[in-house]
Design goal:
heterodimer, A: mainly beta, 7-stranded mixed β-sheet, 0% helix, B: 6-stranded mixed β-sheet, 4-stranded antiparallel β-sheet, globular
Amino acid sequence: DAGITQSPRHKVTETGTPVTLRCHQTENHRYMYWYRQDPGHGLRLIHYSYGVKDTDKGEVSDGYSVSRSKTEDFLLTLESATSSQTSVYFCAIRGVQGMGETQYFGPGTRLLVL
Amino acid sequence: AQSVTQPDIHITVSEGASLELRCNYSYGATPYLFWYVQSPGQGLQLLLKYFSGDTLVQGIKGFEAEFKRSQSSFNLRKPSVHWSDAAEYFCAVEWGTSYGKLTFGQGTILTVHP
């Protein structure tokens, strides 16, 4: 167990509405990441954080923003949701667990934009 | 841009048969290499990783992978597949000095026939 929780786990929303997904970690890890998973694309990095208030864009950042005001929480916001943002969203942390230092993933959030 | 390719979208094997899943990556700085597994509706679990040293690495669940720098490959193998190995498998690469960001392949879906 990597000590990562994501909320909500499932969400249905309508096009044009704002949506915020939360990632919470309990082990004070410095690095946190948001990915989206789509069939045929694997996982693609949206944004990442390397400390409180330190964030940067990933491969597919358009339409997304993030914030990290405290170590344990990393928020992903879709300012105005579109159907193309229907996806499964995974949060990850970089930490040391059973297999040494690597990325460990949360359980995911399924988002459907109608 | 640096990329990771898993040439096989879907592989079907019989239970007890051997398995090899292919992964190739584009040239870049010294890579760190990973294989993750995802069961349906679940998050990602790390199977094994390569940072340095012995190019044949052992992982969990009886999997192993071999890093071949000359071929830019990191293929995953298992000598005898079990029905419970049916899942989707992702290869991922971290290129040095990248804040731990991972680039994933598209994934390979493994079906196991009894």
